[in-house]
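Box 4.2: Ligand-aware structure prediction
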Amino acid sequence: MWSFTKHRSGESELMDDPSIQGPVLESTLIELESINRLLGAYPPTLDGLARLLPPGQKNLSVLDVGAGGGDVARAMIDWGRARGVEVQVTCIDLTDTTINFARARSTGYPELKLVQQDLFLLPDQASYDVVHAGQVLHHFPGELAAKALNKMATLSRLGVLIHDLHRHALAWGGIKVLTRLLAKSPLIRNDAPLSVLRGFVREDWDQLAQEAGLSPPAVRWQLPFRWQVIFSPRSRSG
Ligand SMILES: C[S@@+](CC[C@H](N)C(=O)[O-])C[C@H]1O[C@@H](n2cnc3c(N)ncnc32)[C@H](O)[C@@H]1O
């Protein structure tokens, strides 16, 4: 039984259904990009990169886990270009439809590599400066969220940058009304409010860090109802 303040909903989102592919998934990714632009999905990620980039460093490798249509990865590269920092992003996602869609929209971005890959199946030896997951962690039910964090912390050298949703009644009500009015995709209408119910409250982040065997993260709340969370990497010597 979930609660806005205590528990995350365990109900699965339609986007997690592997049988949904082709044009239905593509139109959903188009609408997700519009929502990302309209509702401030990029600032938590870009501000997080600025915090993680060591002073004077002019290049940054990023693994973008669950990259969707690749718009967030392109925003990271644009952010780097504007600052003279070469940001190389490897995007992974579960399905060919998603990866091919992202590829088609990413011409002019040679810094972007797109791979169909499950996070949990990546070899632990892979290594990136920053491992980023935007609006992905809430897709993992129960203990899988901590398992995913653990994996990401193993793969990162500078830190794990999470952007995800605040589980709050106002966020749920707001996105429900907005998607009823503006979204055409049935997946977006169903999944956007459900994503909020599967999102996080402040206490969840320390709890997740503990379950993943990580130090308490740096947590920042950003408008509108978004979390930027930075976890330290796992030491490779141990
Ligand atoms: C809500 S979308 C977020 C897309 C993008 N990051 C954004 O912020 O717009 C979540 C994505 O995570 C992907 N995903 C879920 N589990 C995954 C896993 N184990 N490995 C890689 N990607 C995964 C899904 O396929 C989906 O495309």
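In the box above, the bound molecule is S-adenosylmethionine. The beta strands are 59-65, 86-93, 112-116, 128-134, 156-165, 218-222, 226-231.
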